[in-house]
Amino acid sequence: MEKKMKKRRRDCVMMGSSNNRENRDLCTRMSKMSSCCRNIRFRTPLDVSPVVVSIINNNNNINTKNNNNQKRPKSSQSFDFFDGLPDDLVVCILCKLSSTARCPSDFINVLITCKRLNGLALHPLVLSKASPKALAVRPKSWSDSAHRFLKLCVDAGNIEASYTLGMIRFYCLQSRESGASLMARAAMNSHAAALYSLAVIQFNGSGGTKTDKDLRAGVALCARAAFLGHIDALRELGHCLQDGYGVRQSVADGRRFLVQANARELAGVLSSATLNPSAAAAACPWMTWHPSHRHVAGAGCPLLSDFGCNVPAAEAHPASRFLVEWFGAAVAVGEGLRLCSHGGCGRPETRRNEFRRCSVCGAVNYCSRACQALDWKVRHKAECAPMEQWIQDEREREDDDDDADADGEEDI
Question: Molecular function (GO) terms listed (predicted)?
């Protein structure tokens, strides 16, 4: 037994020694591997070849440039301070621009600037503030797009656009009903020019027959327009009171309204001269005293001729200028129809013999007494002569020609 136990101990010692030897070898190998791993993990760039370093640096630079190029369009290149402005502020600025524009190009240039301004300039609030001069379209530029633009302004609540488009539709495009409705829409918003235009339509029965005249309605519309400061309406009301046309005759009140119309026109000229003194100084001497009460050629419109004072003619509304140019060059009025003889009116007849003729010469016709008074001061006063005198002069001229022919035959 003891021999067997010793043999087993000897075998165990030998096996332990072999195992220890193997463990030592394994530990040695693992320590070498760990040292290699440490060398590989903590290797510095200096240990890498220069070619590898250059490749790595180039790749890093390329990645950095790509990242910068991807961020710049959002931050520096495409970013503009205008893009940072809120829409409300831009719309407020465009409202101020449209309300003070002196010609359509001032507003159209904004529309063609960029897409954002185009969209904001067509905002209803901006279109509702557009001034009459911004809507002053010319007949040679009239198109469907211009018509749509005016319609957009009308839909936005611009009463100037309602009046202008109403006049164009009623007189130029022969659309009486829609044109009258647009003018009525402006009149309900206390537009003085629209009220006066509707009064002229009622006085003449325009767009209908002679029996469609409503003199009382015309006087009422003139009174409302005169109350709002329309000078032609005040002058028309004065003539109606003097003549008893559509209202009970009152010569004193009529003359008083005519004096008020002249005084308001003079006040308007004085205010414009105060705002622009250089233009007033360069213009003709309109504020001069003429004891003979005669109109000085080229000195303007002597509406205050009773006091010997000359004032320049008032600027016509863009709608009236459109009518003058439309029927003056672009389109004929129609067979048997005539234009108002006052150069600043432009209204055509809608039927034959609609307008009233001059009772002295019969050669000119007017849509209203106001246009007659204006044209008389400017032009017709020097040209008007009785029709009988024309006929007599023509007969005398024919007689002289006959006598000259007879004398010539005798001489031969």
Answer: zinc ion binding
Residue 100, in any domain of the structure: yes
Domains contained in the chain, number:
4
Tokens of 248: 């009970």
Q: What is the pTM of this model?
A: 0.69
Summarize pLDDT for 189-227 with one digit per residue, the tens: 999 999 999 999 999 999 888 888 999 999 999 999 999
Q: Can you tell me the distance from the alpha carbon of 412 to that of 404, in angstroms, rounded to the nearest whole number?
A: 12
Domain edge (last residue) among 263, 282, 301: 282
Torsion angles phi and psi, residue 358, rounded to 5: -65, 130
The string of DSSP codes covering 160-208 is HHHHHHHHIIIIIS--HHHHHHHHHHHHHTT-HHHHHHHHHHHHHTTTS
Any domain includes 167: no
Single out the residue of 259, 254, 186 nearest to residue 225, CA to CA.
186
CB atoms within 10 A of CB 374: 24
Range of the domain at 326: 318-383
